[in-house]
From TrEMBL:
Naturally occurring in which organism (per UniProt): Anabaenopsis circularis NIES-21
Transmembrane regions: none
Protein name according to UniProt: DUF1092 family protein
Domain RNA-binding protein Tab2-like N-terminal intervals: 3-103
Pfam families reported for this sequence: Tab2-like_C, Tab2-like_N
Amino acid sequence: MRIWQADFYRSSQSDTSGQVLWELLICDANRSFEYIATCLQSEANSNWVTAQIQQAAGTELPDLIQVFRPQSLSLIETAGRNLGIVVEPTRRTFALKQWLEERQAGFSLEKPAPLPLPENLWGEQWRFATLAAGDLETEFSDRPIPILSMPEFLTPINLGLASTIPVPGVVIYGGRQSMRLARWLATAKPVALNYIAGAPDGLILEAGLVDRWVLATFEDAEVAAAAKVYAQRQQQSRGLHFLLIQPDDSGMTYSGFWLLQSELIE
């Protein structure tokens, strides 16, 4: 499958007459292919993007274009429809973000303040957990879990993790809300679950392209110490961690499981 990563944004540069320029960047996952095009703001539309994708592709269009910037998604989606190319919104455009970092010397994407989790989804309790990297797949891949997200590129073996590396996670006991919470998470598309120190401390769920949700807050010193260990283990596991939703602590029934990876590795 031929996969591209693309971004279309207002450039900090302008032309000789002072008019604002827009820039289109396209690359593949290892940046063996790179394409740059610029246009005036008055030309920045889906027709121009469509024409540029055709020009970049030549005789072989990509099967999939990945887009991480919400502001450019609709234009690239329209161009994709024009050409019969699937467009996937995802934060996992590591090669493209690295390229932007190099070009813009400190590229960053504005993110909104985290929102509280809707009250009707609150679980009964939660805890930190740890599993050896070698046990992650065997523990969950064969279980009858209604919502299971274990992307191939996030498996420990594909991240080059030793089987003994501890992979941190969070387990939520949802009680009667367990399946409702799991379905909501599936719609939200979890990316990472990070510990943020503050007053109070919290667990922030990064989801979708820029969405952020407060999954839990706490002031207890013992929980805060466990949270710091959780964050340290994320560093050791190349950002890999997991989120498990189950009705109770019996270990008999699971509602949802996600392998996640913090963007700290970018």
